[in-house]
Amino acid sequence: GNFRSRLRRRPVHLWRNAVVKVIASEVRKGNVLDIEGQLCTVMKAESIRPGKGTPTTHIDMRRISDGVKIVKSYRTTESVERAILDTIPMEYLYSDGDMHHFMSQENYEQVTLSNDALGDTLLYILPNSVIKVDFYEGMPVGVELPNTVILEIIETEPGMKGATASSSYKPAKMQTGLVVQIPPFVEAGAKIEIDTRENKYLRRV
Predict the structure, then answer these.
(1) Which positions ≥6 away from 29 have C-beta within 8 Å?
(2) Which of the four, 27, 37, 56, 76, has the lowest number of CB atoms within 10 Å?
(3) Per-residue model confidence as pLDDT tens digits over 135-159
(4) Among 158, 150, 159, residue whose Cα is nearest residue 185
């Protein structure tokens, strides 16, 4: 049978039990959460650590069944239920307006994901890179980014002579359009490793 019907034959109807508890600060863009029995794709997850008070994680989601947007806040250490779905490694091919085309590494069949399913995940992936795509009942519903990616800086202010790592960071634009704060001594054209969980510069590559 075709790709989708083969996926449907896997026991995904058991998904209500197929959840893993993760702490809120570990939730990533593109993950699928089980919120009161409804599957929701994470559009944005942001942990805020105030000087005083409790660190919180704000999660923007879209309910898969009807597309309704939901925003929830959790204590950063509170646990949420991440749905365990069928996950297939897929290569990102190209984008066509707000539709994005991926190809299965298993059998070369293609699927299309919308901006809603991807959130701002696309800022972290280049064409031809492989990421894990989550399927529910044969439909692609979300993605799982690697913890780190390597991207090239296309635009940033010139480095300052004698700048040290401790001086203030400056914004840099990557080839995907992503903006990351980088140390002042890193120049345009450099490739850098970025933590996708916190959108944070790690090192020059």
Answers:
(1) 42, 43, 44, 45, 119, 120, 121, 145, 196
(2) 37
(3) 887 888 888 888 899 999 999 998 7
(4) 159
